[in-house]
Amino acid sequence: MPDTQTPAPQKPGRGAQTARDMVLSLAALLLILLAVLGFSNSCQFSPGGPTIDTSTVPTVDVHSALSGVAAGMDFPVREPKLPGGWRANSTDTISIGAGAQARPVVRVGWLAPAGGFLRLSQTQGGAVDLAASETDDPKSQPTATGTIDVAGVNWTIYPARRNETSWLAEVGGVRLLISGNGKDADFRTLAQAVQTATPLPAK
Question: Do 155 and 169 meet the contact criterion of CB atoms below 8 Å apart?
Fold first, then answer.
């Protein structure tokens, strides 16, 4: 009788091993991602999109910040008095323009009561440079898209980064720029507050 032997099982090919390794790697990455999301409390996901958990956002003392900055500026800095519900969460100073034309810009950002973020910039720098500082390409020449009157002050509207908007006006020889994704009513509230504010004393 012929000698019959059971054939040895064949090892899976390289293609099967590669596919299995990819699946295992993806599973590991998914576990890491879920762990990171589990430890992060700053964003909450909802059917309407991610929302900011404002309890984790820092708060800034606007009066102290602007009073300190005003002492070192050669132009009047204004502190807008906003109604309850506005929360200042950022302040900084940047520079616009180049060389001898460079000028400082004092900025404060708020979370608006109705949602959204608004930033106020104050400077004696050029209008185009100031508007460009709020776009994705600061070297671009933003084009005005319209104007709006707020209590007798004419604000020029410019596009800003992402889907944001900027309003630009000149009050008392200082250029004011409001940028962000807040509602028009919030833009108006901040615009009126800053254009009627008394400049802080320069020490």
Answer: yes
CB atoms within 10 A of CB 124: 16
Residues 156/149, Cβ–Cβ less than 8 Å: no
pLDDT in tens, 28-56: 665 565 444 443 343 333 333 344 444 55
The span from the CA of 67 to the CA of 70, in Å, is: 5
What is the distance between the alpha carbons of residues 111 and 103, in angstroms, rounded to a whole number? 26
How far is Cα 63 from Cα 61, in angstroms, rounded to an integer?
6
Cα separation, 99 vs 73, whole angstroms: 18
Predicted confidence (pLDDT) per residue in 49-101, tens digit: 344 444 556 899 999 999 999 989 999 999 999 999 999 999 999 999 988 88
